[in-house]
């Protein structure tokens, strides 16, 4: 086993780990991009910045990065490499038949270390070459040709990133394996390989499905499948995935965006939202609706810096955590009509209620500084008017309260 | 392989090698320090083979390779009527220059040579097409295997030596200096006088 002492400094070791991490991130991006079914042409991508990792213009899809991040924790990069990181590419037909096409594996073989390779810039340069090999190899397996057909045929290609034991049995009996390359480093040999199915015919009795059920393990539970490109707006995503309300709404493929926009505008004109519900009115010209088609989303993120995902995603503070499960109905045996049950149900309903946008807006308006925009001023004026009315009615409320207290005293007597 | 496949077979092999053997343009900040620009790549679909390969996104580099390959292809196909099974070879040779004393020209030292030997067949036999695709797949894997061994690659040069290692004539890409040799005899041609110094010779016999 290669000792950690092979690095001349802690900085080198940290740098190596960082490079390995980005090698994995970019490797997964290369594989997923190659299965989107798009041919990369000269003008199809905008000119990359000079800050691209490994000096290669590889896309940086946040969704793909997120999938990699879930399988490759930043504090366990080399450990995950040692345990192997896998990218599984599968296909699903319109009838629901499913088949795993290929399994890409990133690994670290600690017996294949090279203590002579000391310069980190050489390691970085060679990792770039390994990525180039990966790019070249992704074009030669049968799944590449199948992916290129997905825009005209009715099937969907999925990817899934996970670490641990490979599930190579899911590839069927006829499997071919290719070693993309091995980079010998002081810490061990970083290797990329692919195992792929050579028989692409799906049997009608779905024998494969029953097999995969038997082989199902925790890895699969933890690593959800992601659709690479849905060929038509024909079906819902089969996976039961939680709906992330923070993500912008996306339009299905081939939807006429102008028409959707027009419908939205018309709706808001006919049914204006009351002022007390939202802080500002619908202004399409100023703030376009955050709807993105799948393809558009992919094009938008190409230039995003790879370092952007170093920052952890911001959580909404002050609210119930997204991951916290909703409260189950509290159950009080033999107390169906007890007032405590009513109270419990009331509490539960409010606890599980979605966070209202208004709450956020109000919070913001409380902490706002001078230099407000007109809309917010109007909102504040409305509130002040309301307050003024209530303040003027203080005497009335006091009288009412006194009256109520008196009646309480009488009934007590 | 068939005559019409020659260009694409050679192009897919040469471009795969050149993609690995090209860097982004260097910008030197000082004699020793430099930054490297990003390399873009494109997919190329073959017309006569069911195959796609990757090449550097550089029109100038692609047109030079195309010109060299078509010259060879014409030479080979031109020999077809007189020979039963015409064969020849085309080599992609990477070299570095060594400065020589005046008045001599700099010496070119090859450090890696990739040779494709081609033999033309009259007409496509059943199953021939698949075998060409499979052969190409094997060659791409072979190329990546050899290149990732990192047996010999010239060191990154300082500013004054960059032209001894890299071809800096392209605006969008910086490949290692290379030459293309063509031969109809079957045996790969060599740079006279430098044969002994060849460090790696990888022959791709088709």
Protein architecture, described:
The complex is a heterodimer of chains A (413) and B (206). Chain A contains 13 helices and 8 strands. In chain A, helix 1 runs parallel beside helix 4. Chain A folds into 2 domains: 4-248, Cell Cycle, Spindle Assembly Checkpoint Protein, Chain A (2-Layer Sandwich); 355-412, no CATH class. In chain A, helix 8 links the parallel strand 7 (250-251) and strand 8. By secondary structure, chain A is of the alpha+beta class. Chain A starts with 9 loop residues before the first helix and ends with a helix. By secondary structure, chain B is α+β, with helices and mostly antiparallel strands. Chain B has one domain (3-205). In chain B, 29% of the residues lie in helices and 27% in strands. Chain B contains 4 helices and 10 strands. In chain B, the strands form 4 sheets. Chain B has a 4-stranded mixed beta sheet with strand order 9-6-7-10. A two-stranded antiparallel ribbon of chain B has the order 1-8. In chain B, strand 4 (41-45) and strand 5 (52-56) form a beta hairpin. In chain B, helix 1 runs antiparallel to helix 2 and helix 1 packs parallel to helix 3 (128-147). Residues 186-206 of chain B have low confidence and may be disordered. The chains are: A alpha+beta (413), B alpha+beta (206). Chain A: It holds the Pfam family ATG13. Chain A: One of its GO terms (cellular component) is Atg1/ULK1 kinase complex. Chain A: Residues 91-200 form the Autophagy-related protein 13 N-terminal domain. Chain A: This is Autophagy-related protein 13. Chain A: Belongs to the ATG13 family. Metazoan subfamily. Chain B: InterPro entries: ATG101.
CATH architecture of the largest domain in chain A: 2-Layer Sandwich
Indicate the structural class of chain A: alpha+beta
The rounded Rg of chain A comes to 29 Å
Query: Which series of helices and strands of chain B comes N to C?
Result: HEEEEEHEEHHEEE
Average pLDDT confidence of chain A is 71
Mean pLDDT rating of chain B: 85
How would you describe the shape of chain A? elongated
Protein name (chain B): Autophagy-related protein 101
InterPro entries (chain B): ATG101 (IPR012445)
Family (chain B): Belongs to the ATG101 family.
GO cellular component, one term (chain B): Atg1/ULK1 kinase complex
């Amino acid at each position: 086993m290669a000792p950690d002492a092979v690095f001349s400094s802690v900085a080198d070791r940290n740098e190596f780990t960082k490079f390995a991490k980005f090698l994995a991130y970019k490797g997964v991006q290369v594989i997923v991009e190659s299965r989107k079914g798009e041919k990369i042409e000269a003008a199809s991508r905008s000119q990359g910045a000079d800050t691209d990792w490994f000096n290669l213009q590889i896309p940086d899809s946040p969704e793909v990065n997120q999938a990699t991040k879930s399988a490759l924790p930043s504090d366990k990069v080399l450990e995950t490499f040692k345990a192997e990181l896998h990218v599984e590419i599968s296909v699903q037909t319109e009838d629901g038949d499913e088949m795993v096409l290929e399994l890409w594996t990133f690994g670290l073989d600690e017996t294949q270390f090279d203590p002579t390779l000391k310069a980190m810039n050489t390691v970085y340069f060679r990792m770039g070459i390994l990525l180039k090999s990966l790019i070249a190899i992704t074009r030669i397996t049968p799944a590449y040709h199948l992916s290129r057909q997905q825009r005209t045929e009715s099937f969907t290609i999925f990817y899934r990133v996970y670490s641990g034991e490979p599930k190579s049995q899911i590839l069927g009996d006829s499997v071919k394996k290719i070693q993309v390359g091995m980079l010998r480093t002081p810490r061990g040999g970083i290797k990329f390989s692919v195992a792929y199915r050579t028989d692409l015919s799906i049997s009608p009795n779905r024998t494969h499905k029953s097999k995969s059920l038997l082989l199902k393990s925790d890895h699969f539970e933890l690593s959800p499948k992601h659709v690479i490109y849905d060929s038509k707006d024909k079906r819902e995503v089969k996976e039961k995935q939680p709906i992330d309300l923070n993500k912008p709404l996306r339009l299905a493929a081939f939807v006429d965006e102008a028409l959707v926009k027009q419908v939205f505008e018309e709706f808001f004109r006919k049914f204006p939202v009351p002022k007390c519900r939202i802080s500002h009115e619908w202004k399409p010209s100023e703030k376009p609706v955050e709807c993105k088609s799948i393809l558009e989303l992919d094009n938008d993120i190409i230039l995003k810096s790879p370092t952007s995902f170093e920052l952890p995603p911001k959580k909404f503070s002050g609210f119930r955590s997204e991951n916290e499960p909703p409260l189950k109905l509290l159950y009080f045996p033999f107390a169906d009509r007890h007032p405590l049950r009513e109270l419990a149900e009331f509490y539960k309903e409010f606890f599980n209620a979605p966070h209202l946008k208004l709450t956020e807006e109000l919070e913001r308006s409380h902490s706002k500084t001078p230099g407000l925009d007109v809309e917010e001023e109007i909102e504040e004026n409305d509130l002040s008017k309301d307050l003024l009315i209530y303040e003027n009615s203080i005497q009335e409320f006091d009288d009412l309260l006194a009256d109520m207290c008196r009646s309480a005293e009488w009934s007590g007597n | 392989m068939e005559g019409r496949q020659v260009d694409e077979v050679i192009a897919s092999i040469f471009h795969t090698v050149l993609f690995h053997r090209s860097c982004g343009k260097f910008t030197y900040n000082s004699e020793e320090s430099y930054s490297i620009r990003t390399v873009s790549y494109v997919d190329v679909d073959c017309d006569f083979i069911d195959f796609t390969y990757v090449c550097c996104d550089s029109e100038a580099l692609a047109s030079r390779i195309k010109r060299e390959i078509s010259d060879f292809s014409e030479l080979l196909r031109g020999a077809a009527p007189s020979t039963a099974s015409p064969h020849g070879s085309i080599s992609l040779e990477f070299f570095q220059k060594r400065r020589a004393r005046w008045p001599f020209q700099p010496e070119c030292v090859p450090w890696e040579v990739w040779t494709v030997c081609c033999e033309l067949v009259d007409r496509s036999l059943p199953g021939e097409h698949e075998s060409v695709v499979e052969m190409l797949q094997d060659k791409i894997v072979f190329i990546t295997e050899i290149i990732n061994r990192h047996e010999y690659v010239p060191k990154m040069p300082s500013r004054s030596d960059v032209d001894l290692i890299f071809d800096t004539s392209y605006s969008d890409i910086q490949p290692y200096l290379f030459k293309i040799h063509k031969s109809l005899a079957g045996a790969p041609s060599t740079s006279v006088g430098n044969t002994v110094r060849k460090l790696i010779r990888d022959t791709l016999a088709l």
